Amino acid sequence: MFGRRRPETRSAHWSGTLSYLEMAGLIERFLDRAPLYGQEWNDFVDAPQHDWRMDAYRRCCYELDPLLNSPDTSDPTAISVLRSLVVSLREQARCAEAGRVNSSEALPAP
Q1: Residue 69's closest CA among 98, 27, 101?
Q2: What's the rounded Cα separation, in Å, for the pair 50 and 27?
Q3: CA–CA separation, 70 vs 88, rounded Å?
Q4: 64, 78 in Cβ contact below 8 A?
Q5: pLDDT tens sequence across 55-96
Q6: What is the distance between the alpha carbons of residues 96 and 20, in angstroms, rounded to a whole number?
Q7: Is the pTM of this model over 0.90?
Q8: Closest CA to 36 of 45, 25, 46, 20
Q9: End-to-end CA distance of the chain, in Å?
Q10: In the chain, which end has fewer C-beta atoms inside a 10 angstrom radius, N or C?
Q11: Nearest residue to 11 (alpha-carbon basis) of 27, 24, 22
Q12: What are the two backbone dihedrals, phi and then psi, of residue 4, each rounded to the nearest 5 degrees?
């Protein structure tokens, strides 16, 4: 095994610079149980984002993780919160694309 590198499993997302749409897509993949690789969700919730707004969303996911990522069924309320985060992230992306800065009222509670 010497000389062989383990295949890279992490994507470039873990540089801490996810966009609104990238984060929305990642959360949707988690909800659909279709990650890009096995540990994508865990890598995401453990990797702080440089932008405080994006990190607020990530921290919310981190707090929900024990309710979602368990051997038993996921908590329906936590799933609902994640779905609302996806809607909020997509709205933030639309505002950013239109050149408007949406105020922090759409950000998840810490």
Answers
A1: 27
A2: 18
A3: 25
A4: yes
A5: 999 999 999 999 998 887 889 999 999 999 999 999 999 988
A6: 9
A7: no
A8: 25
A9: 45
A10: N
A11: 22
A12: -95, 130
